[in-house]
Every structure is written in C-alpha cells, then in structure tokens.
Amino acid sequence: MVQSLRALYARAIVTCALAGYAHSFSTFQWPNPQLSYADSQIYEGSMSILTQGCPPRENTTVPAQWLRIASAYHDMSTHDVDDGTGGLDASIQYELDRPQNVGQGMIDSLNDFKAFRVAAPFFGMADTIALGAVFAVAGCGGPLIPFSAGRVDATEAGPETVPEPQQDLASHTEAFRRQGFTPTEMIGLVACGHTLGGVRQVDFPLVVTDTEDVVQTFDTTTNFDNAVVSEYLQNTTENILVVGPNVTTRSDFRIFSSDGNVTMQRYVDFLSSDTFNETCGTLIERMINTVPNEVTLTEPISEPFDYVVSEPLFSYRNGTLSMATTLRVINPSDNPSRTITLLWADRQGSSCPSTGCTSPSTSSQQVVFSLIGNIQGLTGIRYSFNATINATTSLSKFWFEINENDSSDPVVVDNGGSGFVIEQDTIFIDNSRSENLFLSSSFTDVRKVIVAVRGDASSSVSITTFDPNSSASTPPYVLTVTTTELQLDESNPSEGGFTFFTGNVSETVNFLNIVANVGGTSYTQENFDMTVVNFPFVTS
Ligand code: HEM
C-alpha cells in the first residue's frame, strides 16, 4: 500500500507539472549550501547527461556501471546492522585492488564522477556515487528515486564484505542481513540491479567461460525493466548467474529461487512495470541511504525546492555597494505581466523606507533542467537582480515580492519570515574587481579573487579553497583543500573605507571560506559559492 501511494505521488507531481496547476514545492531555511547544492546537482547539474538514454560503454552501459559501484554488491556492502558501521561511504576508492572489486566499470565510474567536478565540502564522493545511482536508474527508464545528501566519505578501505557469485545461499542471505535486508528484499535487490548490464568475461572467467563472449548481459533488454524477471520465470533467461556453465557461480539462480520463486512471481504479476519499478525504487533508495549510524542524511528530495536564491555577489565602487543575485521560480504560470521586486532593509541608519528599498528584476531566463527535471516535466524561470545599495547604510537582509499584476495578492518570498539575512558586510568577495585571468606566460586560467574589507591595511585575510579537480590520476579522488594568506592588492587602492586584498585561485575551485581579522575582530564567510560568480575576463 505504501509503495502504491509513493508511485501515485510521483505520478501526481508529473501530472500537476504538465498541466501547469498550482504546485506545492518546498523551500528551506536559507542559507543551506548543502540543500542548495544537492538541488542544483539533481535538477540542473550536467552529470546526468552521461546516463540519458541508457548509453552503451565497454559492451555494457554507463548506468549499469554507475549502479553497480553504488550497490549492495560494492560500496554499500560494508554496512553492518549489528554495530551500525559501514555503508555507502566511497570506501570503494581504497578497495579497487581487491579481486572482488575487479572491473573497468569501477574505474570508469569514478573517473566520470571526477570529471564532472561534483565534489564539494558538504557533498563528497559517496553522495556523488549515490546520485549516480539515481541518474543511472532514471536514465534507463526506471523509477525516480528521491535523493538524500550528507554521506561522509571514508578515508580508508572498509572490510572485505562484497558477496561473490561462487558463495552459497546461506552466505548471501547472511551478507544481505548484515547489510539490513531480509531474504525477500535480497531477491528484489539483486533482480533490480541485474536488470542492467551483465558479466564481463575478462573479469569473471570462471563465470563466463566462453572466451569469445565479451559480456553476458543479464537480460535481453538494455533498459531498467522486469525482463530479468520475466525471462527467468519463462526459462528463456540467458543470465549467466542463473544458467551459466559453472553451477557454483549460479548465484542469481540460488537467490531468485530461494523462496520457490514467490517473490519473482510477484514482480511479474504486478510488473505491468509499476510493481517492479516501485519495489526497485524503494529498495535502491534504501540501499544508497545505508550509512553508518552516526551519519545523518537530509530529508529525501523528490522535487526541486521553490524560490532558490543564489549566492549574493557584492561589489563596492564610488560609495555604493552593488548586490547581484537570482531567484528561481518553479513551474510559474505563463504570465508576461509578472514583476518580481528585490527589497532590502538598512543595516545602519535609515536610507530605505520602512517597507524596504526596492530594485526590479533586470532579466529572466528559462531554467535548463537535467534528466530528472525533464522527466518530471518541470519548467522554471530564474530572475536576476542587480541592486544599487548605499554603502554606508548597507543592508541587513533582503527578500522578494512576486506580483502577477492580476487580481491575486503578491507572494512575498522572505525565507519563512526572517528574510535572507546578510550576516556581516565587513568582508566580501568583490565580484566586479575580481578577475578571470588568462596567464599568457603559462597558458593557464586562474581566478584573481579580490576581497573587500571594511577596514584598513592592518587587516589580515585568508581564504580556504575547495577544488573538486583532484590532481590524482587514479582513485582515491579527494577534494583539494588549500589555505592562502591574501596580499594587499596594489591595483585596487583603498577607497571609501574599504581595503582590497587579493590572491589567485584555480578556476575549478567551487567553494571557498574567508577568514579575516579586521581591527581585532574576526569575521568569517563560509561556503561562498564560486560557481555563480561572473568575474570579468582579463588577459595578462
Ligand atoms: C549476491 C549479490 C550479488 C552478486 C554475487 C553479484 C554479482 C555480479 C557480477 C559477478 C557481476 C559482473 C560484473 C562485471 O563483470 O563487471 C555483476 C554485475 C552487476 N551487478 Fe551484481 N551482484 C550482486 C548484487 C547486486 C546488487 C544488489 C546490485 C544493485 C542493486 C547489483 C548490480 C549490478 C549491476 C548494475 C551490474 C552490471 C555492471 C556492468 O554491466 O558494468 N548487483 N554482479
């Protein structure tokens, strides 16, 4: 019953979206870099391109490789329900030399995840592997699995717990119990996984004994569907883990038939596709959400957050602060008369009326959604703002008002009543003074970051940068974290009480923290989002 409701829910979202009905998307208390980033990776990130249409690679498919690495058969298999340790933690990165983790797909998948530079301080390789599994299933036409973020990456190998095809049923049942799954769920999970891809001769010569066979696929379809089940029940299956010449490695046969085929039969009955998809969606979601007890995941995200605000970008010149930001609105009605206004309140004194200073949106752009957003039939508009703010009175918080200019009341987007609070205005990255710098001497692109400090040259500023572009050429791929002391910027002399400090960072840095000491007081800004800056381009 629960599963049916979930499926109905998923369908309801799509139907509402397609019909353009009023919607009830959720929001979160800003700032929340983890949820903002998870939303942007699911709904607007580019990684899902590699799974769209279930594309082939290495005689299997990219999604098959991505799902396998996340699975109860690999990274997640280290979980132990008895002591609450292990789970999906990217420990696979340290376990690739084990025979049980053989396969080009493992390296290919980790290289994909590295290439898309998804890793962030609050979104590690384990979250990326889990997101990869969500995209893999959706890309091959399977269910949409809600995504939760917050996994913690391991820094060393876990125990050797990957189940292997030559093990007996009792060992597999115990392995899945230890990972938190009942014998029935084990049957489901293996069937759900083995709807994609197959077994490679070169990696499993004792399973695929015919050296002419490069890969023996588990079923005759590429897509995420119940063919693996129906072909098994109709005795037409060529799944090598069911009918392979080596009886010892027929692990799928032992697992599928372990309850007299009751579970497999159930998938087919229901499987008007829906039951298989529902069951697999629930089981795979549980599988990728299996983490050590001390790790807490976010609530599952099954729809985009509405009213997502991007990092406010500040700049100071000639007595004024400018602040650029954007507001994303999901599934807006088609209304060219809509106006959206940015409002803000003074930080010091009063130059704004009590209702707030205002600045209209300067432009708007259709949101380009990733695979999941497209499947859900979403539309979205991102409105841009560029406010000119009196630098002395500054601002303490901002908010938005959406006016459809019809008879309806304007909608106030104010972060649940508190407004979008600017914690401090003493230090900020100056978006118009900073530069995207092409160094012709070394043919490299760097970012010259300029931090404006409301204080004098005795201040000190350092930045800690997070770069997902790991310099390693083989796993483990970990974020490169670098702390740099900034220097006084000679090309930007002090102005209006502001002093400017500078340092170069790699163009692939996606987040940074600033720590400053100004007049004996410490200021910090954490998780500044470098992916939205628009520094001017300069060649030097
Ligand atoms: C007793 C448990 C399991 C055993 C013994 C097992 C065994 C295997 C073997 C031997 C392969 C071939 C790998 C290769 O040639 O590269 C394979 C592939 C695969 N397995 Fe499993 N598996 C198990 C459970 C699972 C589970 C729970 C999932 C996911 C829910 C899963 C997903 C996959 C996928 C997607 C592939 C295809 C990979 C590709 O084509 O690149 N497996 N499995």
User: What structural class is derived from the secondary structure elements?
Assistant: alpha+beta
Terminal-residue CA separation: 65 Å
Fraction in beta strands: 15-25%
Give unreliable regions as ranges: 1-23
Number of DSSP-assigned strands: 24
Percent of residues in helical segments? Answer: 10-25%
Question: What can you see in these coordinates?
Answer:
It comes from Lentinula guzmanii. Its EC number is 1.11.1.-. InterPro entries: Ccp1-like, Haem_peroxidase, Haem_peroxidase_sf. This protein has 540 residues and is of the alpha+beta class. It has 13 helices and 24 strands. It has helices at 2-19, 33-43, 62-70, 104-115, 125-139, 169-178, 183-193, 227-233, 240-243, 251-256, 262-270, 274-288, 371-375; strands at 56-57, 60-61, 198-200, 215-217, 308-309, 313-317, 320-330, 339-345, 357-360, 363-366, 380-390, 397-403, 411-413, 420-421, 427-429, 435-439, 444-454, 460-467, 480-485, 487-488, 498-506, 511-518, 521-529, 537-539. Strands 15, 16, 17, 20, 21 and 24 form a six-stranded mixed β-sheet that branches. A hairpin with a 7-residue loop joins strand 12 and strand 13 (411-413). Residues 60, 64-65, 67-68, 71-73, 103, 105, 163-165, 172, 189-190, 192-194, 196-200, 203-204, 207, 251, 284 line the site of protoporphyrin IX containing FE (HEM).
